[in-house]
Amino acid sequence: MASKELKNLLNSSACSDLGDIVRRARDMGELTHIVSDALPGEYAGAIVAANLREDGDLVIIAASSAWASRLRYETEVMLAAARDVGLSPVACRVRVTQS
């Protein structure tokens, strides 16, 4: 019975706060893949996460400061990739992950 309850908690279609968190995490994961796939192959692993904030900022979390520097030159490519899937980013911010 406990496994059924856990499955219901993690069900993204459930009307719950946890369902919203799961849905948001899935959306961020998809956006991360979309943006990463738009970059040249040598950028594999450069992006840890991507998020589109309510104010229109596309926030990219880079794996290191070196990758962040390189990714800043690719902001137009990443913005275009997000727009191609129907999102409306207005700016791109590249940040470095906290390790």
Description:
With 99 residues, the protein is an alpha+beta fold. It has one domain (2-96): 2-Layer Sandwich (GMP Synthetase, Chain A, domain 3), CATH 3.30.300. It contains 4 helices and 3 strands. It has a 3-stranded mixed beta sheet with strand order 1-2-3. Helix 2 packs across helix 4. It is globular and about 45 Å long.
Notable features of this structure?
GMP Synthetase, Chain A, domain 3; single chain; 49% helix; alpha+beta; 3-stranded mixed beta sheet; 99 residues; 4 helices
Q: What is the spatial order of strands in the main beta sheet?
A: 1-2-3
Summarize the main sheet: 3 strands, mixed
Helix content: 40-55%
Q: Gap between N and C termini, in Å?
A: 38 Å
Which class of secondary structure composition applies to the elements?
alpha+beta
Low-confidence stretches: none
The percentage of residues in β strands lies in: 15-25%
What is the CATH topology? GMP Synthetase, Chain A, domain 3
The number of helical elements comes to 4
What's the overall geometry? Answer: globular
> What radius of gyration results from the CA coordinates?
16 Å
The string of secondary-structure elements, in order, is HHEEHHE
Assembly status: single chain
Question: What is the level 1 CATH name?
Answer: Alpha Beta
CATH-level-2 architecture: 2-Layer Sandwich
| Rounded average pLDDT | 89
Number of domains: 1
Query: Could you give the count of β-strands?
Result: 3
